[in-house]
Amino acid sequence: MAERADFDIIIVGGGLSGGLLAWLLKQRRPGLNLRLLERDATLGGNHTWSFFESDLSAAEARAIAPLVTSSWPGYRVHFPGYERELTTGYHSIASQHFHAVVAATLGDDAILGADVMAVAADHVTLASGAVLRAPCVIDARGAQPSPFLALGFQKFLGLELRLAAPHRQRLPIIMDATVPQDNGYRFVYTLPLSADRILIEDTYYSDDASLSMDALRARITDYAQRQGWTIAEIVRTEHGVLPIILAGDMERYLALQTEGAPRIGLAAAFFHPTTGYSLPDATHVAMLLADHAEAGALTSAGVSARLLAHAKTIWRERGYFRLLNRMMFRAGHPRERYTILQRFYRLDTALVQRFYAARLTWSDRLRLVIGKPPVPLRSALGCLSEARMLKRHNNA
Ligand SMILES: Cc1cc2nc3c(=O)[nH]c(=O)nc-3n(C[C@H](O)[C@H](O)[C@H](O)COP(=O)(O)OP(=O)(O)OC[C@H]3O[C@@H](n4cnc5c(N)ncnc54)[C@H](O)[C@@H]3O)c2cc1C
Question: Where in the chain is CATH 3.50.50.60?
Answer without folding.
Answer: 9-45+57-67+95-146+248-317
